[in-house]
Design brief:
about 200 residues, alpha/beta, 6-stranded parallel β-sheet, 8 helices, 6 strands, globular, EC 2.4.1.246, glycosyltransferase
């Protein structure tokens, strides 16, 4: 059964290009190995050393890897840059502070987090695995990096940050993609598939 969005916020995000000097990266999801969060923290460490902007990373969620990720953050000296938010009860509020959503999955069949970012008008960087590849067209509504490769993730994040002038157009395309996955759009398509199966 396809993933669907039950609600989509009104289009209220930035429409004019803005060059920010403080960028907040965000991740939301389970702290499990296949989510690639360790790669994201390593990429964040690399970006800190060469990015022209000041970076913060907010991690929303919890899971088996939380203590390991905390230890990695401390080992890399990123305690002041990486914020562990826990599970958030108000995703809309959390998303307001995020400039760029990152979904660094090693394996992802769909990626509801990507659609959540899309519908909040957030540019998304993800990986070249089936789920994200079905939603993101690189350079059009987001960016894609090699899965399991912190160096390439850092490269793509750096590219996305340097292309801030394109964020409004990318966010607009992403928002339109999210609307196509709203349940009111998806239910007729699902009903057609079900009827086709029944009529066989």
């Amino acid at each position: 059964m396809p993933n669907m969005l039950m609600s989509i916020p009104d289009r209220h995000f930035q429409t004019a290009p803005v060059q920010k000097t403080d960028i907040c990266l965000g991740f939301v999801g389970r702290f499990d190995p296949e989510k690639g969060i360790a790669d994201l923290i390593q990429a964040m460490h690399q970006l800190q050393q060469k990015s022209p902007v000041s970076l913060t990373l907010k991690l929303a969620g919890a899971g088996a890897l939380e203590s390991d990720l905390n230890a990695q953050t401390q080992r890399l000296g990123l305690e002041k840059q990486v914020v562990f938010s826990g599970w958030v009860s108000d995703l809309d509020e959390w998303m307001r502070d995020v400039d760029l959503l990152v979904v660094p999955s090693l394996n992802e069949t769909f990626g509801i987090a990507i659609l959540e970012g899309f519908c909040h008008g957030k540019p998304v960087v993800s990986t070249q695995v089936p789920g994200p590849q079905s939603l993101i067209e690189a350079g059009v509504n987001g960016w894609l990096a090699e899965p399991g490769n912190p160096d390439d993730l850092a490269r793509v994040l750096d590219l996305a940050i340097r292309q801030q002038d394109q964020w409004p157009q990318i966010a607009s395309c992403a928002y339109d993609k999210a609307k196509a996955h709203h349940y009111q759009q998806m239910l007729p398509r699902i009903a057609k598939i079900v009827r086709g199966v029944i009529d066989r």
